[in-house]
Design goal:
Layout lengths: L1 E2 L3 H6 L3 E5 L2 E6 L3 H10 L1 E5 L4 E6 L3 H8 L11 E8 L5 E11 L2 E6 L4 H11 L7 E4 L4 E7 L3 H6 L13 E6 L2 E6 L8 E7 L6 H9 L7 E4 L1 H10 L34 H4 L5 E8 L10 E4 L2 E12 L4 E9 L8 E6 L2 E8 L7 H14 L7
Parallel strand pairs: 1-3, 4-14
Antiparallel strand pairs: 2-3, 4-10, 5-8, 5-9, 6-7, 7-8, 10-13, 11-12, 12-13, 15-18, 15-20, 16-17, 16-19, 17-18, 19-20
Helix pairs in contact: 2-7
Length: 380
């Protein structure tokens, strides 16, 4: 089992450690509810060094990635980031990734921890025949922190990292204690926030210095946050999680991220399969009866099993037992009743509009992002 460079720090903080994505990771420190509210109301710090980082470089890097992904790199300028799935030939999702464009010959791909080896092998297979493209896996060399919450920018600027000029889904190089960091205005919580890449092999001690500095402020509460709150935060915003809403057998259209597909592109892997219509749809639901929905629980409508829960939980901000479900049904409009089978009992629920929670700050950011990238987030 792998460990992040901050493993000993988490243990000293009393974190509950669990296996995740091939790593031993903190699931909680002070408790999921407390950590969840800290991110919504103040700021939280996540160690997400388990994520994978792949470098794609070369004069054909842009053309290769245009073929590899269904989203369109033409939207980007240097210093900008694109969210996209990687699709297989059948239209299923190999992984959902972030593509950082330094320039059209130099890209960073951030991939999910559990898929790093799979994605590396997949890209390596596709790169055959492209003579002027190189692929490098730097996942073991790079650590990653996420600073999320309405006070995230203030916290980092107090450390001398100026961010007011950094737009949503852009990145830039900064320094901390005279050493280089790459920082992006991205995150997985629905709040404003940043993700910071640290080349810990080149700069031993820098990661620990940054982590320690983030908790020294006396202006407001800053808490370390584990995977448990990370999951409830993203679920309130209906962000897809690989292994739940996204799988090799689930298409981006079924998963509700059709806005990441540019079907006008000449060609990309999976395009032919994605042209076919599908009857499955990802819906958000709330329970009317008692119980907490969990992944894989059966979903029923009018006595017929129509699908399954992909993710479910008590959502702390909205105080509802709710989740996402992939169903094969024509009855998916908000207000439509359904039932979730929980321990052999069918519990009443209702389909609702996505997301469950959307902060005003993120809504404004999305307006900016849509105008820059021509993305229709309302369909997600």
């Amino acid at each position: 089992m792998k460990q992040t460079p901050l493993n000993d720090t988490h243990v000293k903080l009393g974190a509950k450690m669990v296996p995740f994505g091939g790593f031993l990771m903190p699931v909680s420190y002070s408790g999921i509810l407390e950590e969840h509210h800290a991110v919504r109301n103040s700021v939280g710090v996540f160690d997400i060094s388990h994520m994978g980082e792949l470098q794609i470089r070369g004069v054909e890097a842009f053309s290769f990635l245009q073929y590899l992904i269904p989203n369109n790199l033409e939207k980007l300028i240097d210093g900008q980031i694109l969210y996209t799935p990687l699709c297989n030939e059948a239209g299923g999702v190999v992984d959902d990734i972030l593509v950082y464009q330094r320039n059209r010959s130099d890209y960073l791909l951030v991939v999910n921890a559990s898929n790093t080896d799979k994605v590396f092998a997949w890209v390596q297979k596709q790169i055959t025949g492209w003579k002027n493209v190189t692929l490098q896996n730097d996942s073991d060399k790079i650590a990653l922190l996420a600073i999320q919450g309405p006070k995230a920018e203030i916290l980092l600027e107090d450390l001398g990292i100026l961010l007011s000029d950094l737009k949503y889904y852009y990145f830039k190089n900064v320094t901390f204690h005279g050493l280089p960091l790459l920082i992006s205005r991205t995150g997985y919580t629905g709040e404003d926030g940043f993700e910071i890449f640290v080349e810990h092999e080149k700069n031993p001690g820098l990661l620990q210095e940054l982590w320690t500095a983030l908790f020294k402020t006396e202006k407001f509460v800053v808490k370390p946050i584990g995977l448990g709150a990370r999951d409830t935060l993203r679920l309130e915003c209906c962000f897809s999680l690989y292994g739940h809403e996204l799988l090799d057998t689930i298409s981006p259209i079924e998963a509700g991220i059709a806005w990441t597909l540019d079907m006008q592109k000449k060609d990309f892997i999976g395009k032919s399969a994605l042209k076919n219509s599908t009857r499955r749809k990802l819906v958000a639901f709330e329970l009317v009866g008692q119980g907490i929905p969990r992944a894989e629980y059966p979903v029923w409508q009018e006595g017929v099993r129509v699908g399954f829960v992909t993710s479910g939980s008590l959502l702390p901000t909205v105080q509802k037992n709710a989740g996402l479900a992939l169903i094969e049904s024509s009855k998916t409009l908000p207000g439509t009743p359904l039932q979730i089978e929980i321990r052999s009992q069918k519990v009443d629920g209702v389909i609702v509009s996505k997301p469950f929670y959307l902060p005003v700050q993120r809504r404004e950011m999305r307006k900016i992002s849509c105008s820059q990238q021509n993305v229709n987030y309302s369909s997600s």
